[in-house]
Design goal:
8 helices, Rossmann fold, alpha/beta, seven-stranded parallel sheet, single chain
Length: 238
């Protein structure tokens, strides 16, 4: 009986290893598909926010206006492809001059893609999708959202802070929504020494759609909007 259980366990482990091996090819295919689809979509801005935001919500309207302005200014707009703020971003970009891109994710509670996507990609793995948001972005625009939005926000802050990504504008839209979190950064994390005072300069709070566009152009007044050769090398390691 003991020997039978041992053989069953070995077979179970072997089966898992086989599945994991095939999963690696699936992960590779997601990266390859993403790279091929997005490599020529430059410059672009990634926009984040809650999937739960209703169409009549002021933040939905704000996100749509921001995306439309960015699109008409020559920026492709990348969002998560789902409902809420993601839909607002795609909708605004879709009505503008530049491509609207959705990086959709398969979830247990199935996320339905919004209909405003010129380019639509679907990922099973969050980590592959997150690389696509960062790799080709000239700016991050973060509207009010939940854990997923905070995850993307923390991701880009970490990458820029540690030098694993080039420095790009990180714009938090909605001072009322973000003020409490930023106060905690400033009044708790900085004194504790877990971040430096200079790290607070990595992000900027804006409330007006035109301010978003202006802040991005201001950032690139003295540098190329596209990555330099050295920055391209850094981004290859993402």
């Amino acid at each position: 009986m003991h020997r039978h259980n041992k053989r069953s366990n070995v077979k179970h482990v072997d089966d898992l290893m086989t599945r994991e091996s095939w999963r690696m090819f699936q992960i590779m295919s997601e990266f390859v598909e993403g790279f091929e689809a997005l490599a020529h979509i430059k410059p672009s801005v990634s926009i984040f926010g809650s999937a739960r935001t209703a169409e009549n919500d002021p933040y939905f309207i704000l996100a749509e206006e921001i995306a439309r302005l960015l699109s008409d200014s020559g920026f492709a707009v990348v969002s998560g492809g789902g409902p809420g703020i993601m839909e607002a971003a795609n909708k605004g970009a879709y009505a503008g001059k530049s491509p609207s891109i959705g990086l959709n994710i398969k979830l247990p509670q199935e996320q339905s893609g919004n209909p405003y996507q010129d380019i639509s990609l679907t990922f099973k793995h969050f980590f592959a999708r997150k690389v696509m948001f960062v790799k080709y972005a000239s700016a991050y625009v973060v509207l009010p959202g939940g854990f997923g939005t905070l995850d993307e926000f923390a991701e880009i802050l970490t990458l820029v802070q540690t030098g694993k990504s080039r420095k790009i504008p990180i714009l938090l839209v909605g001072s009322q929504f973000w003020s409490g979190l930023l106060e905690w950064f400033r009044n708790t994390m900085v004194p504790a020494g877990t971040i430096s005072q200079e790290d607070m300069d990595l992000m900027q709070v804006v409330d007006d759609p035109q301010m978003v566009v202006d802040a991005i152009f201001a950032h690139y007044e003295t540098r190329s909007i596209l990555p330099s050769a050295a920055e391209e090398e850094i981004l290859l390691e993402l």
